[in-house]
Task: structure prediction
Amino acid sequence: MAIKKIIAIGSAKGGVGKSSMTASIAISLSKNNKVGILDADIYGPNQHLLFNTDTKPKFENKSIIPISKQGIQIISIGNILNSEEAAIWRGPMLSGAIKKLIHSTKWDDLDYLLIDMPPGTGDAYLTIFNELNVDHFILVTTENRLALSDLKKTITMLNKLNINILGYIRNNILNMQDKFDDTFFKSNDITHLGTFLFDKKIYNFDCEYNSDVSNQISKIIYIKTK
Ligand SMILES: Nc1ncnc2c1ncn2[C@@H]1O[C@H](COP(=O)(O)OP(=O)(O)O)[C@@H](O)[C@H]1O
Ligand SMILES: [Mg+2]
Result:
């Protein structure tokens, strides 16, 4: 098993579109690449829902075999546990679950492993960055002050951990017409990868949908990670 590039997608803020964007970009990248998704949101897994699969993964010896959907290899705790089961876990169990997914999953060779990050900046982040060589991070944000404020916390942490920021995605989910002030990103040399507007096929996620925005973003990802 070889993974060429590991890209985490996230923001400290919840509800900004991390999971939807991860899934949509995975679909675009998978047209020309072998792609896997690790759903690292143990408390709120979504990838199994986005890809509409409740199949349990196969366990071989001590390995977990990812589920394959649309040619994408997916591993989500949502396919392993009932949705309520992880809700009351404490920190060490959370880290344990992430480690288990990281070390027990038997991926086929992958060009890209995308990690759908949980919200926050806590234990889960540290576990993931300690256990995996994450090559790049893609920031996702809505355009309002709260999301941007939380995003800055994520950036501070990534800088401390020396994780390369590939760029940011704006998710203009409410189709706001206001001009977006990108001074902060420009002054920190953070590339704008693309902007999503409200998209019904993302809202009611259609895992056969090939979004133009995601296609554009995946081209940039390909070029920037070559
Ligand atoms: N561009 C978009 N168009 C339509 N719905 C979106 C878009 N981005 C996100 N959503 C919806 O917004 C909600 C939050 O998105 P989600 O991907 O779960 O965010 P996160 O993983 O950051 O918590 C979901 O209900 C999702 O369907
Ligand atoms: Mg999510």
Strands lie at 3-10, 35-39, 58-60, 63-65, 67-69, 72-76, 110-116, 136-141, 165-172, 192-197. Residues 3 and 160 are 25 Å apart (CA to CA). DSSP finds eight helices and ten strands in the chain. The mean pLDDT is 95.
